[in-house]
Amino acid sequence: MTGETLQTEFEFTLPRGYVDDEGTLHKEGRMRLATAADEIKPLQDQRVQANQSYLTIVLLSRVVTELGDLENVSPHEIEELFVADLEYLQAMYERVNNRGANVVETACPDCGDPFEVSAETGAHVDTSQSQAGLGGGMDTPGIGAAEMSGVEGVGAPDGGEIDDAADAEDVSAGNQPE
Fold first, then answer.
1. Where in this protein does the record put region Disordered (predicted)?
2. Is residue 1 part of a domain?
């Protein structure tokens, strides 16, 4: 052991924010790493059994630990998020649980060398040491983090898949991908 600590909670800022019943906007929050129970227990929820799409709602309500000054984050608050915020949290869930960090890969525009930056701040991040030994997470059929991700292969309302950003924007606007 090297004495390194594992980061288990990650801060975020929602693109739009959750508006509560009093009209208060909540944008800042925290998400924790998911546990096996977080991925298994929602499968027993009657809402998930009736509609598999509800899995995302229940799962995110378990791992989002803070949202603004709300005392509790329940499925109700996740249901009421704007689509852009839901997609943001889905992509973040995939990043932190599969990569162990809230980072995205990019490339130098001059030389093309790939590197990672914080999805929250844009600062350069070196995750080469912190990812050693991390598992993939969300490998349960029907749950996979890649399936929750707003980035690639997300199910469209018609049962198809959203394959690119243009399709994702169409679905966000209530249109079906072509």
1. 125-178
2. no
Q: Dihedral through CA 130, CA 132, CA 138, CA 139, nearest 10?
A: 170
Task: Give the domain extent around 63.
Answer: 9-127+139-172
**Is the separation of the CB atoms in 119 and 103 below 8 Å?**
yes
Does the pTM of the predicted model rise above 0.90? Answer: no
Tell me the CA distances in angstroms from 34 to 63, 138, 168, one per residue in order. Answer: 6, 9, 25
> How many structural domains is the chain composed of?
1
**Rounded CA separation 71/107 (Å):** 40
What's the CA gap between 149 and 15, in Å, rounded? 16
Q: What is the pLDDT of residues 77-127, one digit of tens each?
A: 999 999 999 999 999 999 899 877 777 888 888 898 888 887 777 788 776
Please provide residue 2's backbone torsions phi and psi, each rounded to the nearest 5 degrees: -100, 0
The position carrying tokens 């679905």 is 171
Q: Is residue 56 part of a domain?
A: yes
Q: What is the pLDDT of residue 46?
A: 95
